[in-house]
């Protein structure tokens, strides 16, 4: 995929600022240790929870237990927002990835993802690929999802900018 074109939203940006370059955004997605995922419950209410994720093949990947709330939510509504960044006012970059989550069950892709998880966290997250997702820690199972972005928003602080990348 060619690099997406950043668009600065001047309504929410300081004067004389530039859009966040895609390599900066991609690096943030690749290196972030924690994301917050927002899913939609069957009753339409949001559900937010932290998780770890891996950026691979132009998508953000995460896993969850089949009995967890987010797994239930995704069966009725695949729309998600994954957010990462920092909780400071004057420094840092916050990134929000919008898209639809879809299950990954392709064994070669799952094996690549298991390797990516282990590499990103120096072996702290060990998964084995199965025909339905991941297994780990005494045969616990996890469903694996990919989110190919439809839109990414970035927010820099001091100077303040809002950048949009559309993937339609």
Note down, in words, how this protein is organized.
It is a single chain. Helix content is about 20%, strand content about 40%. It is of the alpha+beta class and about 170 residues long. It has a single domain (about 5-105, about 140-165), classed as Pnp Oxidase, Chain A, CATH 2.30.110. Strands 1, 2, 3, 4, 5, 6, 7, 8, 9, 10 and 11 form an 11-stranded antiparallel β-sheet that branches. A hairpin with a 3-residue loop joins strand 9 and strand 10. The radius of gyration is 17 Å and the shape is globular. The two termini are about 10 Å apart.
Question: What is the topology?
Answer:
Blueprint (H helix, E strand, L loop, with lengths): L6 E2 L13 H10 L3 E6 L5 E6 L1 E4 L2 E6 L4 H8 L2 E6 L8 E11 L3 H14 L7 E2 L4 E3 L3 E17 L4 E6 L2
Antiparallel strand pairs: 1-11, 2-3, 2-6, 4-5, 5-10, 6-7, 7-10, 8-9, 9-10, 10-11
- Fraction of residues in helix: 10-25%
CATH architecture: Roll
CATH-wise, what's the superfamily?
Electron Transport, Fmn-binding Protein, Chain A
Number of helices: 3
Shape: globular
Count structural domains. Answer: 1
Percent in strands:
35-45%
Q: Would you tell me the overall average pLDDT?
A: 94
What Rg is obtained from the alpha carbons, in whole angstroms? 17 Å
The arrangement of helices and strands along the chain is EHEEEEHEEHEEEE
Largest sheet: 11 strands, antiparallel
Organism: Actinomadura spongiicola
Protein name: Pyridoxamine 5'-phosphate oxidase family protein
Pfam family, one: PNPOx_N
GO molecular function: coenzyme F420 binding; oxidoreductase activity, acting on the CH-CH group of donors
């Amino acid at each position: 995929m060619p690099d997406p074109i950043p668009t600065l939203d001047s309504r929410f940006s300081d004067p004389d600022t530039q859009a966040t370059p895609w390599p900066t955004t991609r690096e943030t997605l690749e290196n972030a240790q924690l994301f917050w995922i927002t899913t939609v419950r069957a009753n339409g209410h949001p559900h937010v929870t932290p998780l770890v994720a891996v950026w691979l093949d132009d998508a953000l990947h995460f896993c969850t237990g089949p009995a967890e709330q987010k797994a239930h939510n995704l069966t009725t509504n695949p729309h998600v927002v994954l957010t990462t960044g920092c909780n400071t006012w004057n420094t840092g970059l916050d990134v929000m990835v919008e898209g639809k989550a879809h299950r990954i069950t392709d064994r070669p892709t799952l094996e690549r993802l298991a390797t990516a998880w282990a590499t990103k966290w120096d072996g702290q997250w060990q998964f084995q690929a199965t025909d339905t997702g991941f297994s780990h820690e005494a045969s616990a199972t996890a469903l694996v999802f990919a989110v190919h972005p439809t839109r990414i928003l970035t927010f820099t602080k001091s100077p303040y900018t809002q950048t949009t990348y559309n993937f339609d």
